[in-house]
Design a protein that fits this description.
The chain is an alpha+beta fold. It is about 30% helix and about 30% strand. It has three domains: about 1-110, 3-Layer(aba) Sandwich (Rossmann fold); about 115-125 and about 195-320, D-amino Acid Aminotransferase, Chain A, domain 1, CATH 3.30.470; about 130-195, Dna Ligase, domain 1.
Length: about 325
Amino acid sequence: MLNVAIVAGGDSGEYGISIKSGKQVELHIDKTLFCPFLIEIKGKNWNYRVGLKKFPIDKNDFSLTIGRRRVRFDVVFIAIHGTPGENGRLQGYFDILGIPYTSCDVTTSAITFNKSFCKDVVRSYGINTAKSLHLFKGGVNAEARILADLALPVFVKPNNGGSSVGMSKVNEKRELKPALEKAFHEDSEILVEEFIKGRELTCGVLRLEGKIITFPVTEIIPKKEYFDYEAKYMKGMAEEVVPADISNQQSDLCQNISRLLYEKLNCKGVVRFDYIFTGEEFYFLEVNTVPGLTAASIVPKMALAHGWSFTELITFLIKEVLEIRN
């Protein structure tokens, strides 16, 4: 039986969601094939818990000692949203140790985690993106630059982060300053994007036995003005329509774009591409290389619509990284 370290937590505002994702993976993993260990990471504290007792990870080789038993891991299931699990830092560590993991590699993780850099790369492949500004803390005349270069309304968000933590929609000039302060509280750099009116669609993608698989395109319909943190994780605050009520041609186009980006960005594991659909064109928003896997998350729902249980999805992801073929 293979030992699987499920790493969750991290050092961002997504800590709580990541712990929930990790626990869901631990709950649904096929225990006839894998022996799971949920490792909680917070700063320098990396621990495996049994009740109230903590067993620290030896970072020299990412091993675990429980009594007289020394546990070494065959594979790592990365369930950390945000730093250090989604930006490439953990990936580099595991690469040095030679331990395989279920996510994108260092380079892809670093580029895609930076929303502005990722948009530049995606745009180079001919994919539509919203007009935007990349701003850094300490810069001058941020409000003036935004008002001069972009048309309101705009979204203001941390450039490195997810789950809409620190994001605001700015409809009027007076809302700009508090939105900037909120975003800069979460990150030293921010992205300001022009609002594009349309429907929010998302597509999950993974590679299985060398073939890129796309899940059914899903529409996200928030009960609030936009799909913010509360709408993502509070029950009843958003509706996810799987599959989305769009034509087969539109669905195929979205899946084809997602398949192209998965390949061009050299993605691994399951990722989720988010778009705004105007009715005629798709505008790329971002890619989630470690998407949520909580009970309320979209990817498990997509997998189910595709015909896979959550347990099967986890099994496929682990087997793929270990190149185990049925």
